[in-house]
């Protein structure tokens, strides 16, 4: 059964600036502690990552995952292609401009292959969602301020 969560954050940046930070997947381990390594396997013609292999550590498990991205001007989403510890993962960032800021909504649905107690799964996803929003916000501000 999939576990779902979502969270919103307002970032003092444009959607394009935020998407640029998300697209720099090789840098993700520097601001998102559950990611140990990320490597782009394939890119779209515009340079954005299409397929990425990552090593993720969460809830005491280390997993190698391949995910595939879909991009547009105000949304990026990804879906799991293959992994060892999870059956399915679908996630997205939806960006809504609000003046000189952007409201970012992160959604994730995750279905594990390995049995873990529900409270551990929920706590792990909550931490991941917090990093995916507040961690992203801090990284975007760091990048745009140089």
From TrEMBL:
It comes from the Bacteria. Pfam families: Polyketide_cyc2 (PF10604). InterPro entries: Polyketide_cyclase/dehydratase, START-like_dom_sf. PANTHER family: COENZYME Q-BINDING PROTEIN COQ10 START DOMAIN-CONTAINING PROTEIN, CONSERVED PROTEIN TB16.3. This is Cyclase.
